[in-house]
Amino acid sequence: MPSATALAHPNIALIKYWGKRDEDDNLPAVGSLSVTLDALRTRTTVSFEPGLGRDELTLNGVVAAAEHPRLTRCLDALRALAQCNDHARVDSENDFPTGAGLASSASGYAALTVAGAAALGIDVRDSRLEAVARIGSGSAPRSLHGGFVLLENTATGTRCEPLLAPADWPLHVVVAVTSESGKSTSSRDGMADSRRTSPYYEPWVASHAADLAQGRQLVRARDFAGLAQLAEHNCLKMHAVMLTTRPPLVYWLPVTLACIEVIGALRRDGVPVFYTIDAGPQVKAVCLPEAADTVAAALRQVPGVLRLLTGGLGTGARIVDGNG
Ligand code: 2P0
């Protein structure tokens, strides 16, 4: 029975993706620039079984009751590449909160794509796998790669460009977990609402290419101070779109803002750190390695921070043996 197991890490965008130019093909309206994390991971086994009536998913030990359309579409794309008709059993586990703004869909679909490809004998470095992962989640192609990754729109799709390997600029990320619950509005629904209703959506899209080009230059130059300013600006611009969506997308909690204040005060004191926040209340503090202990100590003191997840930059999705 063709089967393979893959590990993938979530990634965090420093220049964000929010909004789609094509909902059917899950094509993003804007590019993005991310760092892949090493501290958090998804481990997924995909087994294609002749005679299985439909694709079956077990997520964090719980068997999904219904079919999962996005999962099936990803597997269909792999089956088409390998000319296989068998359904698959997918067993996936995250070692961090699922669906809570920690990019579990990015690592989840990257691991699914790589495990499924390997099980079907497709070269896991085949660039067509980026489009397979993207069907599952617009941020998932970034987790196929390690370190700093640029995801760009092309005329017909997207392409990833790894910019720097983890060792080329070994930043640290301290994630302040402020809630363990899932988000109330999915990114997918939120993006569609923003596109339809936010008066800031068009300016967000129009001003995004300049942020992406500048972000790419700053990463290549390893300019931490410049990247700090740009990443915080781009993050707040995305949240301005979210806040002005109808119904509003308020992903923050009071503790989220408290962390922003603490990180701002650290930077004013000369500590090399900046924040970014996604579609959830967790705060990700990105810092130079020598600042990681100071940043962690400060965030641990903030009332409402439940725990910290700390690590460096990680590698891309990869095959492991059954015990890996
Ligand atoms: C990002 N986010 O660039 C942005 C920032 C959340 C905020 O990509 O609809 O789960 O599956 O393509 O990838 C989260 O959205 O959305 C995301 P879909 P995805 O990281």
Summarize the topology.
Blueprint lengths: L2 E6 L2 E5 L4 E3 L4 E2 L3 E5 L5 E8 L6 E4 L2 E2 L5 H14 L4 E8 L9 H16 L8 H9 L3 H4 L4 E6 L4 E7 L7 E6 L9 H11 L3 H6 L1 H13 L3 H20 L10 H15 L4 E4 L6 E5 L4 H9 L6 E5 L6 E3 L4
Parallel strand pairs: 7-9
Antiparallel strand pairs: 1-6, 1-16, 2-5, 3-4, 5-10, 6-9, 7-8, 10-11, 12-14, 12-15, 13-14
Helix pairs in contact: 1-2, 1-3, 2-3, 7-8
Bound molecules: ligand 2P0.
Protein model, in words:
This protein is α+β, with helices and mostly antiparallel strands and 324 residues long. The chain has 2 domains: 3-168 and 314-322, Ribosomal Protein S5, domain 2, CATH 3.30.230; 172-311, GHMP kinase, C-terminal domain (Alpha-Beta Plaits), CATH 3.30.70.890. The chain is 36% helix and 24% strand. The chain has helices at residues 69-82, 104-119, 128-136, 140-143, 187-197, 201-206, 208-220, 224-243, 254-268, 292-300; strands at 3-8, 11-15, 20-22, 27-28, 32-36, 42-49, 56-59, 62-63, 87-94, 148-153, 158-164, 172-177, 273-276, 283-287, 307-311, 318-320. The strands form 4 sheets. A 6-stranded mixed sheet has the order 8-7-9-6-1-16. A 4-stranded antiparallel sheet has the order 2-5-10-11. Strand 7 and strand 8 (62-63) form a beta hairpin. Helix 1 (69-82) runs antiparallel to helix 3 (128-136). The chain is globular, with a radius of gyration of 19 Å. The model has no long low-confidence stretch (mean pLDDT 95). The chain binds ligand 2P0. The site of ligand 2P0 has 16 residues, from helix 2 and helix 5.
